[in-house]
């Protein structure tokens, strides 16, 4: 076990805490975590309720997936009693995403004491559909 094992993210990952509702909505499933490389992979499932009038996945849903990825890669590095809050999320939509499975990869660019920078990409098959950079704030849990 590593030094971060008592944090909220790891307790959730071990099944000791339920995932947040947004993870259930996005059908987010974390499939790989490499803290030494600062990487995290997750799968999402975009169902028909995510579709815009053109039948593609609404950009806001892709942005939510990217926000979940960048926050998760930062969350994985936090100690017990710390949480992450997104300060900014810069999203680029690269190609229309289809309803169905979407894979994501996040990477930690830099983490300081109170601010972290992360990036993420969403792909369907071998095609990148969206990417983002994020600035996140590390905040103490309420009551601490």
TrEMBL record:
- Name of the protein in question: Thioesterase superfamily protein
Q: Does the keyword Hydrolase apply?
A: yes
Which Pfam family is one of this chain's hits? Answer: 4HBT_3
Q: Which GO terms describe its molecular function?
A: fatty acyl-CoA hydrolase activity
**UniProt keyword terms in alphabetical order:** Hydrolase
Acyl-CoA thioesterase-like N-terminal HotDog domain residues: 54-136
Species source reads Hydrogenophaga pseudoflava (Pseudomonas carboxydoflava)
């Amino acid at each position: 076990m590593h030094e971060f094992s008592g944090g909220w993210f790891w307790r959730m990952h071990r099944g000791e805490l339920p995932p947040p509702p947004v993870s259930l909505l996005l059908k987010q499933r974390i499939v790989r975590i490499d803290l030494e490389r600062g990487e995290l992979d997750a799968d999402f499932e975009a169902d028909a309720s995510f579709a815009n009038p053109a039948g593609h996945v609404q950009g806001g849903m892709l942005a939510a997936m990217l926000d979940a990825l960048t926050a998760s890669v930062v969350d994985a590095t936090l100690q017990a009693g710390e949480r992450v809050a997104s300060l900014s999320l810069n999203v680029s939509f690269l190609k229309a995403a289809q309803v169905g499975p979407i894979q994501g990869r996040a990477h930690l660019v830099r983490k300081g004491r109170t601010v972290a920078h992360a990036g993420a990409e969403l792909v369907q098959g071998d095609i990148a559909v969206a990417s983002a950079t994020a600035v996140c704030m590390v905040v103490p849990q309420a009551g601490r």
